[in-house]
Amino acid sequence: MSKPYKGFEPNWFQGKIPLNSYRSVFKWGAPEQIKAPKEKMLHDVMNRFGIDDSIFREYQQDLGLDEVKFDIPVQLAPEHIAALKAIVGDAFVRTDDYARFSVAYGKTMYDILRARNKIVENVPDAVVYPDTREQVEAIVAYVSEHKIPLYVYGGGSSVTRGVECVKGGVSLDMRLRFNKVVSFHETDQMITVEAGISGPKLEELLNDAVSAFGAKRAYTLGHFPQSFEHSSVGGWVVTHGSGQNSTYYGCIQDMVLGQSYATPKGVINTDSHPKKATGPDLDQIMMGAEGAFGVLTHVTLKICRHMPETVKRFSYMFKDWETGIAAAREIMQSEAGNPSVFRLSDPEETSVMINMYGVMDTPLKHLFKARGMEIDKMCLFLGFTNGEKGFSKNAARNVARVSKRYGGLNMTGYVCKGWEHGRFSDPYLRDTLQDFGVLMDTMECSVNWSEMARVHAEVRKVVKARPNTVCMTHMSHVYPQGGNLYWIFIILENDAEAFRRFHASILDAIQKSGASMSHHHGIGKMFGPWLEAQLGKNEFDILRALKNHFDPDNIMNPGGTLGLDIPETEKRDLLK
Amino acid sequence: MSKPYKGFEPNWFQGKIPLNSYRSVFKWGAPEQIKAPKEKMLHDVMNRFGIDDSIFREYQQDLGLDEVKFDIPVQLAPEHIAALKAIVGDAFVRTDDYARFSVAYGKTMYDILRARNKIVENVPDAVVYPDTREQVEAIVAYVSEHKIPLYVYGGGSSVTRGVECVKGGVSLDMRLRFNKVVSFHETDQMITVEAGISGPKLEELLNDAVSAFGAKRAYTLGHFPQSFEHSSVGGWVVTHGSGQNSTYYGCIQDMVLGQSYATPKGVINTDSHPKKATGPDLDQIMMGAEGAFGVLTHVTLKICRHMPETVKRFSYMFKDWETGIAAAREIMQSEAGNPSVFRLSDPEETSVMINMYGVMDTPLKHLFKARGMEIDKMCLFLGFTNGEKGFSKNAARNVARVSKRYGGLNMTGYVCKGWEHGRFSDPYLRDTLQDFGVLMDTMECSVNWSEMARVHAEVRKVVKARPNTVCMTHMSHVYPQGGNLYWIFIILENDAEAFRRFHASILDAIQKSGASMSHHHGIGKMFGPWLEAQLGKNEFDILRALKNHFDPDNIMNPGGTLGLDIPETEKRDLLK
Question: Which band of pLDDT confidence, cut at 50, 70 and 90, is reported for residue A5?
Answer without folding.
Answer: low
